[in-house]
Amino acid sequence: METLDVKTALRSTLTQKQELVRDYQTFASQINNPEVSKMYRHFAESEALHATKIKETLDSIH
């Protein structure tokens, strides 16, 4: 099995998380059901926290 470069994995995951934040924010603003909209806002916030942690980890790797 081939090993995956850590920076490559982190960059890929960061991109995915950023896209999820964007998508969830879009869904939250376009859905007219307040409960579902709130759920998507919560998802966006969670993914943003994940993205921040991934970015910090990526920045700390030389």
Protein model, in words:
- This protein is an all-alpha fold and 62 residues long.
- It has a domain at 18-56.
- Helix content is 84%, strand content 0%.
- The chain has 2 helices and no strands.
- It has helices at 6-30, 34-60.
- Helix 1 runs antiparallel to helix 2 (34-60).
- The protein is elongated, with a radius of gyration of 15 Å.
- The mean pLDDT is 96.
List keywords for this structure.
2 helices; Rubrerythrin; elongated; 62 residues; Ferritin-like_SF; Ferritin-like; mainly alpha
SS-based class: mainly alpha
- For this structure, the quaternary state is single chain
Give average pLDDT, whole number. Answer: 96
Written as H for each helix and E for each strand, in order along the chain, the element string is HH
Helix fraction by DSSP (H/I, runs of at least 4):
over 70%
Total strand segments = 0
The main sheet comes to: none
Measured on Cα atoms, how large is the radius of gyration? 15 Å
Shape: elongated
